[in-house]
Amino acid sequence: MRACALTVLILCLAASAFAGWDPAVRLTASDSATHNSMTPARSVAAGPPGCVHVIFYDNRTGDQQIYYKRSADSGSTWSADTLLSNGAGLKGEPAVAASGGCVHAVWEDRDSGYNAGIRYRRSTDAGLTWLAETLLASTANNCRNPSVGTGFLRPCRLGR
To answer: What does pTM read for this prediction?
Structure first.
């Protein structure tokens, strides 16, 4: 009876050793403070299978800018940082969403008076390259905390 209980205990311990989380991986190496959105769920997206997309901001260049990273192997390895935003000023509160091979990114683009407009960029190859930045709302509209979803967007195939 004791041998049977010990065997069950060993099997349970062995199974639990393989369950759980991988060790934490640092994604940024900037000495400046790195931030994600006020709602962190908007900072990570997944798709196509195995791809993970992360968006964040920091001021490593002297201006607060938006950066992107991707993993094509479910988070085991990560790409170098990709700068998504352009120009001087403060950029913040980014959000990312993915559907098929399309990755969509939005963020606040603030002027010196902290009025915010909204900028958008899209990738059609799962985050490898990005199309030009588009202004969705000017700073005159003072838009804040953008978010993006893919439920209303037509899924795209890789490269289209």
So the answer is: 0.78
